[in-house]
Design brief:
Length: about 280
């Protein structure tokens, strides 16, 4: 509950930051346009890691947000990023890496933004800026059909081994609530799919992970179910370096336009059926 309140307070603060950014970027844009003698109508006041390119860091192990189809990274995030790049007149390049390398890729300036179903958290806000949230995520618990764990509360009885993807919010919550308190053991995996494989083979008792990949994993693996009670709810956003606010404002503005005109929702609906 307190975590939820903290998150809400955070979101409120964030909304205010972007409300301010929206006001000030209006005038920046005017200046940029007034000064633009090249005849280009694009807002050319931002710079990217590679000229003309928007580089997105992701971890393509997170269906339906980002995953491989043939040799290309596809999914909700990939499509939203492509629409943003198009609006900004940039070519989108997606770089696939470990989830816990994304923030470093962004802060070092190697990537222009990180987009990976990434939850806004206080810890991440210490090192990166976030866009407006564009989707909701829910941390859920996957168990074997015949598991003794039938609700989130059961986990707090203790004695279980919980699988998570390393450095994700599922990892954070399991660590804080269940491992640091001495109740359960947490096993960290590089990929969510590896955690699920460990669950299937009976090495661990459950997996805490985001709901949409959880659905995909439960569908692909016989004998697994998702508990009805959710662990917690959170917001996904794009992360940026704190040092390139001209770029983060331009990307955020494009994202907001794409949310307002329904593009983001139609991309989400394409991958996630309402149920
Ligand atoms: N939403 C979770 C997080 O931000 C998981 C993201 C992911 O695994 N790609 O930590």
């Amino acid at each position: 509950m307190t975590k939820m309140k903290k998150l809400l307070a955070l979101l409120l603060a964030l909304t205010m930051v972007f409300a301010l950014a929206a006001c000030s970027s209006g005038s920046t844009e005017d200046t940029a346009e007034a000064e633009d003698s090249s005849g280009s109508t694009e807002d050319s006041s931002f710079t990217t890691a590679t000229e003309g390119v928007l580089t997105m860091a992701t971890n393509a192990e997170f269906p339906p947000y980002e995953y491989y189809e043939n040799d290309a990274v596809t999914g909700i995030d990939a499509e939203i990023a492509a629409a943003i790049a198009e609006k900004l007149g940039l070519e989108l390049v997606i770089e696939d890496m470990a989830f816990d390398s994304i923030v470093a890729a962004v802060t070092s300036g190697k990537a222009d933004m990180g987009m990976a179903g990434m939850t806004i958290t206080e810890e991440r806000l210490q090192s990166v800026d976030f866009s407006e949230p564009y989707a909701t995520g829910v941390q859920v618990v996957i168990v074997a059909e015949d598991s003794a764990i039938t609700s989130v509360d059961d986990l707090f009885e203790g004695g279980y081994t919980i699988g998570v993807q390393s450095s994700t919010t599922g990892d954070l919550y399991a660590t804080w609530d269940l491992e640091d308190t001495g109740l359960c053991t947490v096993e960290r995996f590089n990929r969510g799919a590896d955690a699920v494989a460990a669950l299937t083979s009976g090495k661990i008792d459950c997996v805490i992970i985001d709901n949409e990949p959880a659905k995909a994993f439960a569908e692909a693996n016989e004998g697994l179910v998702i508990l009805d009670t959710a662990y917690t709810e959170e917001e996904y956003a794009i992360c940026f370096s704190k040092d390139n606010t001209a770029l983060s404002e331009a990307v955020n503005e494009a994202l907001v336009e794409l949310m307002e005109d329904g593009t983001v929702q139609s991309i989400i609906d394409k991958y996630i059926s309402a149920d």
